[in-house]
Design a protein that fits this description.
Elements (H helix, E strand, L loop, with lengths): L21 H35 L11 H53 L1
Organism: Denticeps clupeoides
GO molecular function: DNA-binding transcription factor activity, RNA polymerase II-specific; E-box binding; protein dimerization activity
Pfam family, one: HLH
Length: about 120
């Protein structure tokens, strides 16, 4: 069996990191506290935005509160559906107007031909 050899302090390699002074430790702790505060503030803002988005989406009270990913997916699908419906309405309106204008031009041409026919007789 292999034997474990103990090293004397003189033969130990130098420490990987130099020892930290209390001042550098306090500076590091202060930076960590500030970073934690920023992250907490960011998460509060994100949660507030999610709540605002949930209040706008048409959901039934029976469903309960949607998770963040459910809220984002539902909002995406809702916006897509509304845009699709709006696009269909725009196309329908365009086709109706186009048909009406084409029909009016057709009637105008018929009226012109009728007047020409009457005048020639």
């Amino acid at each position: 069996t292999p034997t474990t050899r103990r090293m004397s302090p003189a033969s130990c390699p130098p420490p990987r990191f130099p020892s930290r002074t209390p001042r550098s430790w306090l500076r590091r702790a202060s930076r960590r506290v500030k970073a934690n505060d920023r992250e907490r503030h960011r998460m509060h803002n994100l949660n507030s935005a999610m709540d605002a988005l949930r209040s706008v989406l048409p959901t039934s009270p029976d469903e309960g509160k949607l998770t963040k990913i459910e809220t984002l997916r539902f909002a995406h699908n809702y916006i897509w559906a509304r845009g699709h419906v709006s696009l269909c309405h725009c196309v329908l309106l365009f086709c109706t107007v186009y048909f009406f204008v084409t029909f009016c031009m057709y009637l105008q041409s018929l009226l012109y031909l009728y007047i020409m026919f009457i005048d020639s007789n």
